[in-house]
Amino acid sequence: MTSTVSAFLDDISTRDGLNAARARIGRLGDERAYPVLVALAAELEARQASTPAEARERLHALSDHLEEVLAKGQDVDSALALLEVARQPRDARYQGRLSAARREQELAALLATHRPATSFVELFSHRQGPEDLLELFACGVHEFVLRGADLSSAPGVQALQAELTRRGHPLAALPLQRRRWESSFGRLLGFEDFEAMRGSLREALDSKSREDEEDEYTTPDIRLVTQDEPVPPALAAVLDVGGGEAPHEAIEQRVLKLRPALPKAPSDTMTSLLIDLGLPLMKDAAFVVCERDTLSHVADFFFSRVASRGRGWLGAAYGRLALWRTLEALGGIEVSWATDAPEKRWNACTWYQFKGSWQDERPGILGVVCLRPGGTSLALVAVRDTKSLW
């Protein structure tokens, strides 16, 4: 194998040489030479320490490509080879701030991108004990669930869930079926399905029906009194993902008690309220636009924050977890996610999205308001759009 690796590395100092090495890895995949690829992965990592710093990125590029070739294979042997590679640690300089668990999360996303759920489920019987690649499988479950798979009764998944519960793992609380309002998440992850399109159509029809009802509602001419309430720790969970600014500088969070109640407040009433609040993040904003929205659109707004690698990526599993925590805090509930109580609560809320902007080049503000059932309180969260995240 050493001679094989040497042949790969003889001429990777140029782009053509690197592309040729990538092509050779691809041919090994086509030839189903999976043991060779597993050994090659180990040899590539073994060479990191003796490779000049300026050339290490090329080794990493080859390792990344090798993992992708195995993920794209459509037989079980290629998937098992990828698991073997996953059990091999990547060079610490590659990991950087990323833990080994984060690497397993990346590989789970890679499998879900290129393989059907049935292929993933088949791998459960090949785990080497409860500790083996726990994070890869835990994250992989939700990568596939959000692409439309129902894994609630899949072989091996219940045992995994029991192990996650025993460990107090945060992902153990998430349901193993995609909820209706999550139906577009597959698209955000690069996957389309008919169920998602049907869900979008149902959502549009439901939204039109609600708009017709709400157009008939007007807010009485009253003086509204607000009182700040404690902010739940998870209110901005889906926004606070290490974007480079401290949360208090980039994120606005408020929970308010309203007197009198504002059930089904029209958008213009909510716009006036946002202006009157004088939110620090929106100080002196020239334009404030607030529009009534739906739970699924709000969820898309949040999930898009973490579904793309260019936007503070959390991945499907931890992005979903952060979203559920944020929605729970917005809706003012603390119930088991294994029941339908959260959805009932969230569907009884009135949702809004809002934007604040200035006439100069200051970055805009994007946010969500949740008017809780009965209109006696609301929660809002907003973020500075410093990188055009949405």
How would you describe this protein?
By secondary structure, this protein is an alpha+beta fold. The chain folds into two domains: 2-169; 200-384, 3-Layer(aba) Sandwich (Protein Transport Mog1p, Chain A). It is 50% helix and 11% strand. It has 17 helices and six strands. The chain has helices spanning 2-9, 15-30, 34-46, 53-72, 76-86, 92-95, 100-114, 117-122, 134-145, 157-167, 185-188, 194-215, 247-250, 267-277, 295-307, 315-331, 341-348, and strands at 225-228, 251-259, 287-293, 350-357, 365-371, 377-384. The chain has a six-stranded antiparallel beta sheet with strand order 1-2-6-5-4-3, with helices on both faces. A hairpin with a 7-residue loop joins strand 4 (350-357) and strand 5 (365-371). Helix 2 (15-30) packs parallel to helix 4. The chain is elongated and about 80 Å long. The two termini are 47 Å apart. Residues 243-248 have low confidence and may be disordered.
